[in-house]
Write a structure and sequence with these properties.
- By secondary structure, the protein is mostly beta strands.
- It has two domains: 3-21 and 179-453, no CATH class; 27-157, no CATH class.
- Helix content is 3%, strand content 60%.
- It is built from two helices and 24 strands.
- The strands form two sheets. The chain has a 17-stranded mixed β-sheet that branches. Strands 15, 16, 17, 21, 22, 23 and 24 form a seven-stranded antiparallel β-sheet that branches.
- It is rod-shaped and about 105 Å long.
């Protein structure tokens, strides 16, 4: 006879929303809004420059990157000068033509004739590659008053070669920086990523010889996340001075697994990894690249003193997860929200003392490369919702439980039947590879504690 119990429903589930993905393969230079192209002050060489990159012609914080550059010598950002009429380049010259005499005369007075500064171009004629800026070290200048133009003798260089420090802001506006509310609004600025997949019905997801197998009767997993962040890097010292990311995430999982044990099985942890998802990377050539990675895994803690046939079904949604991950300090990393909602049920056809505790791992990982490998770091968050099922048959004197998987103390005696005790355990952790790993949030919700008569 099949013995069945339905476990309590904690919340009705709503469908999870998957945000529209940003495809950053089309990221290209745009003028930072801090520049007024009518101002003559933009002609003056300065060691500081703000370089924006976006998916649209105008600055959109949803899909933008801002680089604050400190160069090793002054730079002139030609795109910030509204009176620049034309720019033409050869292998060793950059010629700039102006649309009025006032701007031309101002350039004569401000640009050192002997050079010693950089010109930064942006889609002018043949001066730079598509969707990139060009960087040129000026060695000398010659002026043509008749045509209001200047020809600079130059040596082409790149971002990595001229940078003393850089500070990069990803998809942020000031009001949203380090948001700790835990509330997710997918209309906020952010790099949006998402993935989902289904497990084929009847798929064997793991096994242990001929004595144990686990079969997915149904399975659908999806996630969506918004990522915002900031880092600053000092070139002479090769030091990352700041690096943090805010990750707002929501997860949905619907998982039904049948555990079939035909003989005793020692405690073990089993894992099935369906694959890794790679959204488009965010790349500014020779400056940095940021590569998001999404990973899923389905697993279970299993152990039993004898044969067992057990079904576990769980549907869960986590709509409001916020994590602030400080790559330089685990103590400054924290989470908010992460309120799990779930429905669940179990049924047992053949009972034995033991446990069958399926879980799902969601991982959002970020790999950052600065200045073509001068510095690399990888970190992210991992969330694990787990359905813990602990069974005990009264006639059995052997208890099989993983040491760290005890649910809660019980004083009552379950005789002439079997005891089933279930809980929902949810853990969120953060990590930086080879640096630190830390649990930021953990909750355990008791679901069921009852005796089922034989």
């Amino acid at each position: 006879m099949k013995l069945t119990t339905c476990l309590a429903c904690f919340a009705f589930l709503a469908g999870t929303a998957i945000s529209t993905l940003n495809d950053f393969t089309d990221l290209h230079p745009i003028l930072a809004p801090s520049y007024d192209t009518a101002k003559l002050s933009n002609i003056v060489p300065s060691a500081n420059a703000t370089l924006n990159y976006g998916l649209d012609a105008t600055m959109d914080p949803r899909s933008s990157v801002t680089i604050d550059l400190l160069a090793d010598r002054p730079v002139v950002l030609l795109e910030a000068i509204g009176a620049v009429l034309k720019v033409a380049c050869t292998y060793n010259t950059v010629t700039v033509s102006f649309s009025n005499a006032v701007t031309f005369e101002h350039a004569i007075s401000e640009w050192p004739r002997g050079g010693g500064f950089y010109l930064i171009t942006n889609h002018f004629e043949n001066c730079d590659a598509s969707k990139e800026r060009g960087f040129y070290r000026v060695t000398s200048l010659s002026w043509d008053k008749e045509h209001a133009s200047v020809t600079a003798q130059t040596e082409k260089t790149d971002f990595k070669s001229i940078a003393t420090s850089l500070a990069v802001t990803f998809s942020h506006v000031q009001s949203s920086m380090q948001n700790n509310s835990g509330n997710i609004t997918f209309n906020e600025p952010g790099i949006s990523v998402a993935s989902n997949f289904s497990l084929p019905t009847g798929m064997a997801i793991f096994s242990d010889g001929s004595s144990f197998s686990a079969t997915a009767n149904d399975g659908y997993l999806s996630d969506a996340a918004l990522i915002r962040g900031y880092f600053s890097y000092d070139v002479p010292s090769s030091q990352l001075q700041n690096c943090w990311f805010d990750i707002d995430a929501e997860f949905f999982g619907d998982l039904a697994v049948t555990f079939n044990l035909t003989s005793p099985l020692s405690n073990n942890n089993y894992m099935f990894t369906p694959g890794t998802f790679f959204p488009s990377s965010i790349d500014v050539p020779s400056a940095f690249s940021l590569k998001p990675v999404l990973r899923w895994a389905v697993g279970a803690d299993v152990g039993a003193a004898g044969a067992m046939y057990h079904d576990s079904n769980i549907t869960m949604t986590i709509p409001d997860g916020h994590a602030h991950v400080d790559f330089l300090s685990s103590n400054h990393s924290h989470v908010a929200g992460w309120s799990p909602r779930l429905t669940s049920a179990v049924s047992t056809g053949e009972a034995s003392t033991g446990h069958t505790s399926p879980f799902v791992d969601f991982t959002i990982e970020l790999s950052l490369d600065i200045l073509n490998g001068a510095f690399n770091t990888t970190g992210g968050i991992t969330a694990r919702p787990q359905f813990v099922n602990d069974l005990n048959v009264a006639q059995s004197q052997t208890r099989v439980r993983k040491a760290n998987r005890m649910i809660w103390p019980r004083n009552a005696t379950c005789s002439n039947g079997y005891e089933i005790r279930s809980s929902f355990n949810f853990t969120v952790g953060a990590y930086v590879t080879d640096q630190w790993q830390k649990t930021l949030y953990n909750t355990e919700i008791p679901i069921e504690d009852e005796c089922i008569s034989f």
